[in-house]
Write a structure and sequence with these properties.
The chain is mostly helical. The protein contains 20 helices and nine strands. The strands form four sheets. Strands 3-4-7 form a three-stranded antiparallel sheet. The protein has a two-stranded parallel sheet with strand order 1-2. Helix 3 crosses helix 6, helix 6 crosses helix 7 and helix 16 runs antiparallel to helix 17. The structure holds glutamic acid.
Length: 481
């Protein structure tokens, strides 16, 4: 059993969900649970994200038996450190005739794509270098043309695999593209690295999200090409928003760091996630991880997309406060949440100049602890801008910060100033509503220091609330006209 998160962003609730079901299955059957970091996307993968994914899973108690930090017999556990292994395996397929070099340039492929779209066909690779003669291959290599390695998908027949939850899934081979296995920079694609590593790491059950099911036929064919025994495949239903769409941060907080910063109990989050598409034989809602493991079977999974709802998770958390934890344990939780030492220490430089005695502290810092801050549309309206413009600009700004990896004050200041300039807003018109949105106040310590300490999840929430307030203002503005 394994999870293979890609460290390209905040730790996602979906990663915890899949980790939980892998871990439960491993614990139930005495198997090992492996954490493999799938960091083949060199540009988007960041060590900070890897660290945060690991910290969040640990926070939830979803511990792994093998992984980059604890080691194990199948390491290394970061795909970026296994490049050589992936390359060797691509070469093996090349030698056995199951793969080939494709020299097509980006321009060529773009043109192909454009033509196909124009003809209203599904864009796909047309196999143009699948059957090059050795002389042509040698000539291209001599020219020094870069190439990728593609797998030679059979052009006829059907690939069938069994999904343990769905039964047989089949696809006509001619519908499957000749997948790139090795990119021209020598890095493997997800498909090659995933299959090779699952095999070499002795993974017997691939338990992953439904969104990968369309990749599985390629994986199954790869197992056959290598002559390896296939693992069992279990594709878990996707978590969904209330309206049935795939869970997204626009509708729901999806970052595990968000739950931690709101003061959720890890065991309540785990309990809630256990009930996503799974239920206890007696349908009870509150149960421990050990109870989950004891009762765990895949037969109890239902495939109707489970709805993730933060309100419902809060209700479960409240149940833990009132019915599961005793007073001592509840007190311990509160203490560690409110008096989080790292957070308190970060506030020291911000309050030192402004305090004469200890009791001044709470009044000065209350918005660091208060979750949402109440704002009315009129609180944030800049004189020279409409509510509509404010809503749109704040929305773009919130999106920008979501993509911002470096959340230090200096980095935030830089991207914010650039943003304001690009939007052609007066600095004052932007910074005042921003300060109020983020702190609920007109005056605060240096804004970017504040934002760094508040942290991404809370800043995101407050900005989204401000967007909502500005939209409300725009509505009223419209009516008054
Ligand atoms: N790297 C993939 C992810 O981020 C892993 C998918 C799989 O488990 O095969 O989810």
């Amino acid at each position: 059993m394994r999870i293979g998160p890609s460290p390209t962003g905040e730790p996602h609730v979906g990663t915890a969900y899949i980790a939980l079901f892998n871990l439960a299955f491993a614990r139930k059957h005495g198997g090992k649970f492996v954490l493999r970091i799938e960091d083949t996307d060199q540009e988007r993968s960041k060590p900070e994200w890897e660290a945060q994914i690991m910290a969040s899973l640990k926070w939830l108690g979803l511990d792994w038996d093998e992984g980059p930090d604890v080691g194990g017999p199948h390491g290394p556990y970061r795909q970026s450190e296994r490049q050589q292994i992936h390359r060797e395996h691509a070469m093996k397929l090349l030698e056995s005739g199951h793969a080939y070099r494709c020299f097509a340039t980006k321009e060529e492929l773009d043109a192909l794509r454009a033509e196909q779209i124009e003809r209203k066909e599904t864009p796909r690779y047309d196999g143009r270098h699948r059957d090059l003669s050795q002389a042509q291959i040698d000539a291209f290599i001599a020219e020094g043309r870069p190439f990728v390695i593609r797998m030679k998908m059979p052009t006829d027949g059907t690939t069938v695999f069994r999904d343990e939850l769905r039964g047989d899934v089949s696809i006509e081979n001619e519908q499957v593209d000749d997948q790139i296995l090795l990119k021209s920079d020598g890095f493997p694609t997800y498909h090659l690295a995933n299959v090779v590593d699952d095999h070499l790491m002795g993974i017997t059950h691939v338990i992953r999200a439904e969104e990968w099911i369309s990749s599985t036929p390629k994986h199954v064919v790869l197992y056959e090409m290598f002559g390896w025994e296939k693992p069992k495949f279990i594709h878990m239903p996707l978590l969904r928003n209330e309206n049935g769409s795939k869970i997204s941060k626009r509708k729901n907080p999806v970052s595990l760091m968000d739950y931690k910063s709101r003061g959720f109990l890890p065991q309540a989050v785990v309990n809630y996630l256990s009930r996503m598409g799974w239920s206890m034989p007696d349908e009870r809602e509150i149960f421990s991880f050990d109870d989950f493991v004891e009762n765990f079977t895949f037969e109890r999974i239902s495939l109707g997309g489970p709805k993730f709802d933060i309100e419902k998770m809060s209700w479960v958390n409240g149940k833990y406060y009132r019915e599961v934890l005793d007073e001592q344990a509840f007190g311990d939780h509160l203490l560690s949440y409110v008096f989080d030492e790292a957070r308190l220490r970060a506030l020291v430089p911000l309050v030192r100049e402004r305090m004469d005695k200890g009791e001044d502290f709470i009044g000065l810092t209350e918005y660091f602890f208060s979750g949402d801050v109440e704002i009315q549309p009129d609180d944030i309206k800049p004189k020279k801008q409409t509510f509509k413009a404010l809503a749109q600009t704040f929305e773009r700004y919130a999106d920008l910060l979501d993509r911002q990896d470096d959340y230090s004050p200096a980095a935030l200041e830089e991207v914010t100033r650039e943003f304001v300039e690009k939007e052609e807003w007066k600095t004052r018109d932007f910074f005042m509503p921003l300060r109020i949105a983020v702190t609920g106040r007109k005056a605060s310590p240096p804004l970017f220091d504040v934002m760094t300490i508040l942290g991404r999840p809370l800043v995101r929430r407050r900005l989204r609330n401000a967007v909502a307030a500005a939209k409300l203002g725009a509505k009223q503005e419209g009516k008054n006209k």
